[in-house]
Amino acid sequence: MTKLIITLLLCVLFLTLSGQKYSAVWLTTDDGLPQNSVKDMVKDRYGYLWISTERGVIRYDGNGFTSFDVHGLSNLHFMTFSGDRKKDSIVISTDGRRDAIMIRKRKVLRLPYYRKKDGIYFRGKYYEYYEKSNLGDPSLKMYYTVSTRTGTYLFSKNKIVFRKAGSPAVEILLSFDPNNMKDVFSIDELVFIRNTKHGNIIMIENGRVQHLEHPMFADPEAIIYWEKINRQVFLIHKDVIYTVSYTNNKISLRKLMNYKNFRNYQFYSMYYDRDYKILYLGSLTRGLLVLKQLIFYAVKNNISSEPPTFTSLLPYTRSSVLTPEGVVFDSSRILKRIRFDSKNFPNSMLYDNRGNLICFKDSTLQIYPPSMYRPILRHVFRFYIFNVLRAGDLYFLNAFHNNQYVLMEFADHTYSKVKRKFITRQVVECIQQCDPYSYVAGCADGLYVLDVRHLTFKKISHIPVKNICRTRDGNLWAMSFANGFYLIKNKKLIRMPMDRDNNLSTPHDLQEDRRGFLWISTNNGLYRIHRKILLEYSDTTSHINKEVHYYRYSKKDGFNTNEFNGGGQPGSAALANGQFAFPSMDGVVFFRPESVPAVLPYSGSISAERLKVGDSIRFLNDTLYLKKDYHRAELYIDIPFYGQKENLVLEAQIDSTTDKKWNVIGDDRVLVLEKLPSGSHVLYIRSWIGNGKYTYKTLSFYIQPYFYETVWFRILTGAIIITTMVAVIRWSYRRFSTQKKIIQTVTDRLEQTEMILENETSHQENLFQAITHDIATPIKHLSNLSQMMLDTDSPALQKKYFDSVYKSTEELYNLAMSLREYREAISSNEIFAEKAYSLHEAIERKIKLFADMSEYNATKIINTIDQDLVLSVKESIINIIIQNLLDNAVKNTAGGTIVFKGYREYPYIVIMLTDTGKGMPDEKLNYYNTLYQSNDEDETKFRNLGLGLHLVIRLVKKINAIIEFRKQTQGTLVIIKIIDICSKEF
Q1: Is the peptide bond before 168 cis (omega within 30 degrees of 0)?
Q2: How would you classify residue 398: left for phi > 0, otherwise alpha for psi between -120 and 50, otherwise beta?
Q3: Cis check: omega of the bond before 324, within 30 degrees of 0
């Protein structure tokens, strides 16, 4: 009895120590379950969890549920899974075994002729199959059978018969009641019977009986759950869940977790995923409970007199850390509080080479022995201390002295004698040695190099640095305040890539584990990446287009908060027992880096077998076919992944090329196919599986072309064109003699037309000179009238002159009222007028507007444009262009001439404006010519300077014209070329 008690106590102690924390999430109909009664679970060989409910069988991939419509089923009340997972053959039937389905290759197939028997007959008795011990279900039959790989066991009252192929049946007589079948389970080919009456376990192997003992099985309140297809056995005792195994001739338990009030949830099925350390519990009423073991331990600071957060930690013992306030934590609780003589500065402390603790407050430096009882040295300086720092065997103290920041190097760990002084611009947050004669120091305004030979303190980067960490290979890594982290190489900073959510822009500290992985705490999660990947990225010859992925851990893995804390020295601790400790905004996070898994997809786990077009979903074979008139197709990407979704990197690429970008597939894992050309395509899907590697899935698909895109249509069209051309050539050859006469006749007519056009050109030139004179005279007359009005005293003559002025200025008024054209020209998308108009007349109207000013400047404005030269470009646009160019010319020309020229030059109508003014400087000429050639719309927006010419260039681009500014001997030449639909040759 004493031995039994000791064994029980040791067992309970071991199980208590091995227990872990867990997260609990209920999945119900709100999350995609068709119904909240989860009756059975099994995981297939591809990594998907299949769940049996009262409304069908569904598949769970860690992200969501997928239901399958199976036609022809009489009901959807499915029962228990059976079959062989390794052979990819899982079968489940409905109640009454009226219908059954098979799960194979991630799909569901109906078995229309499947009729699985409930049991077997033996010696006139019917023995029902026993493959699962449903939690709490009573045994209602009198005869049961359990099969193993080595034989079959038939259970009846006080007798068990073992049958093996080729051998006679073996009868085993023992005290057994079939009503207690819930106490029966098998492990491999062994069958076990719990005997609560005698407090032992009966094991039967090939018909041979052995008796085992285990105190936990003796308690009749303990519940056993066993399922044959999953090959898993659980024991639930006082709300603690254990897995059962048989090794080294002993039956043993391993504690998974404790779930309070286990019996109250009507759990009916269980499955433990060893790969991901997830326990699934199926309830008859509540849905699916997902329990995940947590591998991080976050210990809160419950001392009310101390601040809840801290930025620095020091190892205290092999398994505990010390905060600047003297609080000692281990991975389970606060161990004690060391009473320092005074409250220390929270951001900086260190151990010297003798194990003494050095900390400070204000201007007092205190050195504590390893006993931490009281300081052995206390220095009071005449300056304010900001940081105590150590780099190798050198000890530094950063302070504010004589109105300046000073970094002092001391001769030894006692801080009694200053060896060197360096003047700094800011507080030195951290320091590390980079070579025998220099150190790198991080400050709030950048990174500096400290040269001990020349006593210099030189800035090498403007990136603010709060921490510098050294890895085992000697490399230094700089943690910035808000710009990510960097590798310090050859006294230069090489920026490391960001994570997808840019959380690494605020790193705090870095620790390297024994496998070479770097652990980086941030304001939003803890990140892990192998050092080798970052060093490969830092190589300038290889990091171009090289993708780097980090693994992120969040509060779902066991933190109290995702926000870590940092900025102190040191900002984290590596303990002698192998644990890391990082300070967070809600406690200290402890973990063993080598035991923390990185849950990622495994190679070959991607599948793409479901396609949704319109409202229908269909399953695919090796090649995907889409009809020619499809508008949008959604391809569902399936991948079993039970980790945090932010660590799943799922990307796709169509018709891959080396320089083509991979597109990220969202959390819904749906790839949209739209606006793709017809023909054959290849879809590439990949998922990151760690260490810079990917697993790939390739899918060919074909988009049906329209009839005019097919090869046969192109061949037929080509044949028709060739046949037509041959026929036309033959017909042309036969008609050649006839056409020769016709051509001669047409040639004679063209020569006559040419002569007529030459005469017409002469007439038009004479008419142009007359029009020019008639237009110039009224403008001059208006000026003379104004002067004559001033010179005469006769009221009658003044009235006469005034009437003439009124009529002449009315035109100018009407022209001024037409300024509304600006709005029409700028806002309208139409550039062509309903009816062509004379370019000459349009320019004449603008010349009238500037007549007074040009005459005042003794400048002539000449319009040499042919009056028959017409434009179809909107007159409002042309008016604005001419008005602004003429405005510039008049303003910059005194005592000179301004000449308009225009002509047709296929396919353009050319307008030239020449002035004899002071001319445009070379820099402005280059600016406006460059401005026209620029494709940047923002450059041609209205500016405060040069508004008119900016507007001109904008409108010229709008009508797809060409403008050029040239410098002349005197003045400026502006050339505009307009493609116009009125051009006869166009």
Answers
A1: no
A2: beta
A3: no
Tell me how many domains the chain contains: 4
Residue 972 CB-density burial (10 A; 0-12 exposed, 13-18 middle, 19+ buried): buried
Residue 710 lies in a domain: no
Q: Which of 127, 125, 73, 122 is nearest to 102 (CA)?
A: 73
| Model confidence, pTM | 0.69
817 belongs to a structural domain = yes
Token pair of 830, please? 């139409």
CB 37 within 8 A of CB 284: yes
- List the structure tokens of 96: 């009454």
Query: Looking at per-residue confidence, does 419 or 887 come out higher?
Result: 419
CATH number for position 462: 2.130.10.10
Residue 571 lies in a domain: yes
Point out which residues pair with 267 in neighbouring strands: 283
Residue 927 CA to residue 965 CA, distance in Å, equals 10
Element (H, E) at 796: helix 795-817
pLDDT tens digits, one per residue of 794-840? 766 666 556 556 545 655 555 455 556 655 666 677 888 888 889 99
Q: Under a CB-based contact definition with an 8 Å cutoff, are residues 232 and 226 in contact?
A: yes
pLDDT of residue 621: 72
State the average pLDDT over residues 460-471.
95
Residue 567 corresponds to which tokens in the numbers above?
């900025």
Coil, strand, or helix at residue 911?
strand
End-to-end Cα spacing for the chain: 114
**Token pair in block for residue 542:** 């290889």
Q: How far is CA 867 from CA 270, 682, 986, in A?
A: 95, 63, 20
Last residue of a domain, one of 575, 595, 615: 595
Question: Does the pLDDT of residue 531 top 70, yes or no?
Answer: yes
* % of residues, the chain, pLDDT over 70: 85
Task: Give the integer Cα–Cα distance in Å for 390 and 245.
Answer: 52
C-alpha to C-alpha distance for 215 and 931, rounded to whole angstroms:
91
How much of the chain, in percent, has pLDDT values that exceed 90?
45
- Which tokens is 535 given? 């060093």
91 beta partners: 82, 102
587 C-beta neighbours (distance < 10 Å), count: 22
pLDDT tops 50 at residue 351: yes
* CB contact at 8 A, 487 and 500: no
Q: What is the dihedral of CA 794, 799, 804, 806, to 10 degrees?
A: 140
Range of the domain at 644: 607-703
Structural Rg of the chain based on CA atoms: 46
| Largest separation between any pair of C-alpha atoms in the chain | 152
Residue 543's pLDDT band (cuts 50, 70, 90): low
* Lowest mean pLDDT segment, chosen from 854-868, 872-886, 942-956: 942-956
